[in-house]
Design goal:
Blueprint lengths: L1 H16 L7 H16 L7 H26 L5 H13 L2 H16 L3 H9 L11 H48 L11 H25 L2 H11 L8 H12 L1 E9 L2 E9 L2 E2 L3 H33 L1
Parallel strand pairs: 1-3
Antiparallel strand pairs: 1-2
Amino acid sequence: MNTVLVVICAVLLDRLLGEPRRLHPLVGFGWLARRAEEIFYVATHASPFVRYMQGIAAVCAILIPFVVLALLLQQLPVYGPLFSVLVLYFAIAPRSLREHAERVSQAFSANDLPAARHAVSMMVSRDTSQLDEEAVARATVESVLENGNDAIFAALFWFAVAGAPGAVLYRLCNTLDAMWGYRNERYNYFGWAAARLDDVLNFAPARLTALSYALLGHTRSALHCWRLQAPSWDSPNAGPVMAAGAGALCVQLGGAAIYHGQLEQRPALGCGMAANAADIMRAVRLVRHTLYLWLGVIASGALLMAECQHA
C-alpha cells in the first residue's frame, strides 16, 4: 500500500504544482551529462569499438551512482516515503503535457496559426515554422500520445516494479537518450548504449500504454493499427504507442516531417480522417483516462497482494 500512497501523492503534487519552472533536477542532470560527455567522448577518428565502450562507460558512470543513492534514500525511516514521492513527482509530467497541448488548442481557437506553430515547437523536435493547421494538429497529437508513455506511464511502471531506483533509472536514461541517442556522426556509436538501454526500459511500458489506449478508445481499430503499422515505425517502442493511439482516436498520423533540415517521409499511422485541431484535446483525454486506469490497476494490485499476504 505504500507504493499506492506514494503514486497518488506524486500525481496529486503534479496536478497542484506542475513541473518546477526553476531548479528542476533534470536540468542539473543534463549539466552532469554534458560534463560526462566531455570526459568520455572520443573524437570520431577513433574506432567504432572504442566509441561504443566509451559510451557504455559514460552511461554507467552517470547512472549507477544515482540509482544506488535512490536505493539507499528510499529505505530511510520517515524520510524514505517522502523521498519516493519527490522522485516520482519529478519523473512524471501529466500536467505539463496537458498544458502544452492546451496552448496549441487555444491558439487554434483564436485562429492564430503562428502561435500554434510556436506552441507545438515546444513539444516536438521537428521544424514547425512552415506547418499548416493539419500538420500542427498532427504533430501535437503525436507528441501527446508518445509522451503519454515517455513522460508518465513508463516512469509509473518502473516505480511500481522497482520503487524510487526504478523511476530514477528510467527518467535519467530517457534524458540521456534525448541527449545522445542520435544516429549521426557524433553519437551513432557513443550514444548507442543510452539509446539501447532506453529501448529496453521502454519495451514493456510502451506496450502496456498501447494496450491501455486500445482499451479506452476504438479497440478494434487500435489493435489493427498496432499490429499492421507499428513494425514499420523507426522506433520499436514509439511505433506501438502511436499506432495504437492513432487507431484508438481513429485519426491519421505520421507522414512527412522536417528534422534538422532534412525531410523525412514517415509511415502512415492510424485510420479515418487526418488529425485536426479538435483531436488535440481528444488525445489529452485519452492520456488522462489512461492515467486513471493505471492508478486503478496499481491500487488493485496492491490490495490483491495485501490480501494474499494476510491469507
